[in-house]
Amino acid sequence: MYLTDRSTPQGADAEQGRGRGPGPKVAPVVLVLGAVSLITDVSSEMVTAVLPLYLVTTLGFSPLGFGTLDGVYNGVSALVQLTGGHLADRLRNHKLTAGIGYGLSALCKPLLLLAGSLGTLGCVLALERTGKGLRTAPRDAMISLSTPAGKQGRAFGVHRAMDTTGAMLGPLAAFLILRAAADGYDAVFGVSTCVAALGVLVLVLFVPGRGHGAPGVVEGEQPVRVREALALLRLPRLRALACCAALLGLTTVSDAFVYLLLQRRAGVGEEWFTLLPLGTAVVFLLLAVPVGALADRVGRRTVFLAGHAGLLAAYALLLWAPAAPVLPPLVLALHGTFYACTDGVLPAALCGIVPERLRASGLALVGTSQALARFCCSLAFGAAWTVWGDGPALAGSAAGLLGCAAVAGLVLRPTGRAR
Amino acid sequence: MTSMRRRLLLLLAAVLLLAGLATGVVLHAAARADRANRPQTGGPAVSAGKLTLDQKSRLLFVNAAPGPHRTAVASVPSRDPKAGRTAAGLTCARFYAAAGTGVCLQSNPGVLRQSNRALLLDAGLRTRRTFPLAGTPSRARVSPSGRFVAWTVFVSGESYSSAFFSTRTSILDTRTMRLTPSLETFSVVKDGKPYHASDINFWGVTFASDDDTFYATLNTAKRTYLVRGSLSRRTVTTLAQNVECPSLSPDGTRVAYKKRVLSGAALWHEYVLDLRTLHETALAERHSVDDQATWLDDRTVAYALPADGTVGSSDLWSVPADGTGTPRLLVPGASSPAPL
Fold first, then answer.
1. For residue B192, which of A63, A157, A242, A323 sits 20 to 30 Å off, Cα-Cα?
2. What topology does CATH give the domain B45-339?
3. Which chain B residues are closer than 8 Å to A67 by Cβ?
């Protein structure tokens, strides 16, 4: 029942999505996957919120050496995503692949307690990221495959909103525990383990598995080969979308830099620094569903590009940096809007392009190219900052983003039937 | 339907089990935290009392001995550090004091994040002013005259995909109350040439007695440098490599510092550098020292080492500053030494 009926012509599908007729607004499996993500994010953000503190106060690490590991993780995570996507298609079992990813991350939580050195801790965190990389594409593919073409944006919006809710509840839970038990980092990790286990259990119990009308299972077809997945790149519309996502990713300054710029150029007090990501998250959370639904109506590419226009506006505001108290909230609002317009909308846009049996591979391909491009942007931006300073580096990114957005606008301009 | 019902029952059972487990873990940690705040037999005697920074021949520190005065600022006579401790009603993560000025860095769990602040203290350990901090307290210093105060915190920025760390070092002029939020606004001269980079970090300031010169650690491109700075000219100049957390001797001729012995690993040895000749001397301490040392006099430095068997606790040790002798346990269960 979660399968899109492929015999339905695309136009009819779109009609169905446009009308607000009877039936649930999102498929139950989307809500279940949203719940799994919410629970898992509570678990992982609990750890993220206290990890720096734990490293410094309990393990006595000098944290400067830690940042260098981060770039490596991001690269690894992007490549793992590709593997996860292909594995899911190949095994024709998205649930299993996603489950392995969630399970791996859950297993890492108790291991954090045993990691006493930077090396072992680095390994545990790398394993955690591997789990995250593995599950992303199959999970998105399940959302994609269980939702009619006309409701993709809303479905991904619902999932991302639930996911972000979890990310915001995590720190709240962690600091509640630390207030109840001074230096209770082990308690934070322990509770995080329990929460992560619950997330895996919800996935196992409530996401339909193979042969039960599960999303992503198409019976009686040849197994997917690597060559077939690579041949996806020959699909002109997928190639265009992947290239545009990468191109725009090349000029998308990473969150950390945005907050740093906000602090330096807009004069945000240092004590607020750790709260800046929350501002982005709140806006993302509030806008994810309405913007997703809007994308279903007016076209996902339009919304995707509009999101980048919002990011460009944020860059412009940061460059201008007027001494107005409204500047930081405005930049954060634009940053959150950018996420709402892009994070779920991009996978939603892939629905009509990638064949079902290769959906996870296609999602992973686009996701990976975007992630790798953003990673390159971080490196380049850091180097530019070093050589020319934050203003010129930002001006360069803004000019680059404008150029890339113009190219993407041309490439992705709506054709007759493309949405 | 029955299968759905079975799955819901299974979920309910798992939720109850996991909730019970989580509650148990938290209660266990809370009980342990409670125990740490109860006095232990055989521990040092600590009593509440009046502490002032005008007293002479006292050693102040942050008490780490289990009991109700854990993390409180406490003092012992310099001559008899094993004597009973007098604890003030002030708790700190890091503390320092000189010439009637004190600084106390605090860190407490807030709602969504750790809440960190610096307290500027007068001679009666009363708070003159509070400053919000950008991160986890690390180092604190007061100039020998009591006019300038410096602190370093670890800053971490989180986002969905990245975590990065940096240090932030601030200097406060207590006469004008002018705060330099970050030393990174000072101009840097490295190896004789002006130097700019986005990855510059400073930590571990120590002040000279002229109320202008200071020393600190500068980190850039994965290297650490000892820098000499001028507060009036807002500049720093690199002097030597692989020097962290310098501490200037009372006579102003040497700095004690920690030197990284294995790149990439958290292993440091404590050294003393002669500022005139740049000759370095390894001290007799064989353990890894991760602290900004304090000079008790012109011949002895004191520093904290992790206490055996107790995570997060430390002891104060002292060692001769000329590389001879052996380390001596100065005050067990203590950190942040500040001699008066």
1. A63
2. Neuraminidase (2.120.10)
3. 163-166
